[in-house]
Amino acid sequence: MKKYMKGKSCEDHCVLQHSNRICVITLAETHPVLRKGSKIKSINYRISDGCSRLNNKVSGKSKRGGQFLTEFAPLCRITCTDNVEYTIFSCIRGRLLEVNEDIIMSPDLLLEKPSTEGYIAVILPKLEESKRVTNSLLTREQYEEVVSKRTTQQPQPC
Q1: pLDDT, block means (10 residues), the chain with 158 residues
Q2: Is 85 helix (H, G, I), strand (E, B) or coil?
Q3: Which terminus in the chain has less CB density within 10 A, N or C?
Q4: List of long-range contacts for 109-117, beta carbons under 8 Å, 24+ apart
Q5: Sign of torsion over alpha carbons 24, 52, 8, 109
């Protein structure tokens, strides 16, 4: 889990890391989109006029051609029906292997199955950085402790 992305308290992201280093990025269960049960109006992988994550093309065994992402690179923007917009970040450094185009046409997947069919993207960290990535993430227990402290210490809970 990653908390406080770009200083935005409560907009937590979830990184599911497989033993083969591949990381699946999705929303943490405490992210406002999931917690509030918001209705999603749109999901947009176009980050700027010159950059769309949908244009990412990966080929070969070593996954050449994937866009290289830094920890705070935006992956997509989620706009809810109340016009609140959330930027979802990559959370880790690595190559973008794929984005989940299914959630564009069926945004409810993100709400109903956030850690399976409703994932946002798949990223492959460099081999030499994979240990650092693992160490930078919170375990489920550490994350639950952070959330518990957050709800008792903040005057207005997330």
Answers
A1: 59 88 90 88 91 84 83 93 93 92 93 91 87 81 83 62
A2: strand
A3: C
A4: 110/26, 110/27, 110/33, 110/40, 110/43, 110/78, 111/33, 111/34, 111/37, 111/38, 111/40, 114/14, 114/26, 114/27, 114/29, 114/34, 115/14, 115/16, 115/24, 115/26
A5: negative
Q: pTM of this prediction? A: 0.84
The rounded distance, in Å, linking the Cα atoms of 54 and 100 is 9
The Cα 36–Cα 75 span in angstroms is 22
Instruction: Give the helix/strand (H/E) hosting 44.
Output: strand 40-44
3-state SS assignment for residue 53: helix
* Secondary structure class of 39 (helix, strand, coil): coil
